[in-house]
From TrEMBL:
<dbReference type="GO" id="GO:0006826">
    <property type="term" value="P:iron ion transport"/>
</dbReference>
<dbReference type="GO" id="GO:0016887">
    <property type="term" value="F:ATP hydrolysis activity"/>
</dbReference>
<keyword id="KW-1003">Cell membrane</keyword>
<keyword id="KW-0067">ATP-binding</keyword>
<dbReference type="GO" id="GO:0005886">
    <property type="term" value="C:plasma membrane"/>
</dbReference>
<keyword id="KW-0472">Membrane</keyword>
<keyword id="KW-0813">Transport</keyword>
<keyword id="KW-0406">Ion transport</keyword>
<dbReference type="Pfam" id="PF13304">
    <property type="entry name" value="AAA_21"/>
</dbReference>
<feature type="domain" description="ABC transporter">
    <location>
        <begin position="11"/>
        <end position="229"/>
    </location>
</feature>
<keyword id="KW-0410">Iron transport</keyword>
<dbReference type="InterPro" id="IPR003593">
    <property type="entry name" value="AAA+_ATPase"/>
</dbReference>
<keyword id="KW-0408">Iron</keyword>
<dbReference type="GO" id="GO:0005524">
    <property type="term" value="F:ATP binding"/>
</dbReference>
<dbReference type="InterPro" id="IPR003439">
    <property type="entry name" value="ABC_transporter-like_ATP-bd"/>
</dbReference>
<keyword id="KW-0547">Nucleotide-binding</keyword>
<dbReference type="InterPro" id="IPR038729">
    <property type="entry name" value="Rad50/SbcC_AAA"/>
</dbReference>
């Protein structure tokens, strides 16, 4: 039985205007429904294939601020989220998430600033701006994760060294085992390797599941690491 907080989604494309750019995103426009059966779901695919658009819409429909944070964050520094949230219906599970966080690499700076504004004597600031980008990003992820929470993460690897990606991978795996749910957009072959995760790729013009070894994140990295000299020879000759 599907025990996830967000068990799946449906998109009613009739609710999106005919000339919306959303209808031109090749992989996305074919999505009518998706099911999230496992505690960890990954969205992968080429730049511009629609992963963040779908992730953001899921987060907004679930009640998160489009720029990220917990459900209590309500600031807005720019209004750029798409109308996809108006067409998505989430199928929610019978369990209630005790905690949640929408983490986006691209607006982390704004969220870190807001975290200082929201701090008070009872909830002192973690002063993320006083740490390096990677240190603060991992610290935030570690502070926020709890068993029975839901975490929507957009490219959480962006600021992280390979070492810290391994740390994040272990944390995600640990909390997923303890009952948390993660939906993650990533290009990281390290994070993608988390056992038992389900991977949806936005490549080849349709959103479909794929094996770890079939992701381009894995294939390009594997080719580069194992055949670096031949690859560079070929690329620089072209
Ligand atoms: N406001 C907008 N107007 C027109 N097109 C847009 C707008 N916002 C996003 N797009 C387009 O929608 C497409 C999907 O963007 P999205 O950010 O979802 O891609 P992505 O798969 O997350 O890419 P990346 O891996 O680079 O983060 C892109 O081609 C982008 O240019």
């Amino acid at each position: 039985m599907n025990q996830q907080f967000i068990r799946g989604l449906e998109i009613d494309w009739n609710k999106i205007e005919r000339d919306s750019y959303l209808k031109n995103i090749e992989a996305l426009k074919g999505v009518e429904q998706l099911e999230f059966e496992t505690p960890i779901t990954f969205f992968v695919g080429e730049n511009g294939s629609g992963k963040s658009t779908l992730l953001e819409a899921i987060a907004v429909v679930y009640g998160f601020n489009p720029e990220g944070g917990t459900k209590n964050y309500s600031f807005s520094t720019y209004d750029s989220h798409s109308n996809l949230c108006e067409a998505i219906r989430l199928s929610k599970g019978f369990r209630q998430a005790k905690h949640g966080y929408f983490l986006r690499a691209e607006s982390f700076y704004n969220v870190a600033t807001k975290e200082e504004d929201y701090a008070d004597a009872g909830h002192p600031s973690s002063r993320f701006h006083a740490q390096s980008h990677g240190e603060s990003f991992l610290a935030l992820a570690q502070q926020q994760m709890q068993p029975n929470g839901i975490y929507i993460l957009d490219e959480p690897e962006a600021a992280l060294s390979p070492h810290r990606q391994l740390t994040l991978m272990l944390e995600i795996h640990r909390y997923a085992k303890a009952g948390a749910q993660f939906i993650i957009v990533t290009h990281s072959p390290i994070l993608l390797a988390i056992p038992e995760a389900k991977i949806w790729t936005f490549d080849e013009g349709a959103v479909h599941t794929c094996a770890y070894e079939d992701t381009s994140s894995y294939q390009v990295t594997e080719m580069f690491v194992n055949h670096r000299e031949q690859l560079l020879d070929r690329l620089f000759k072209e």
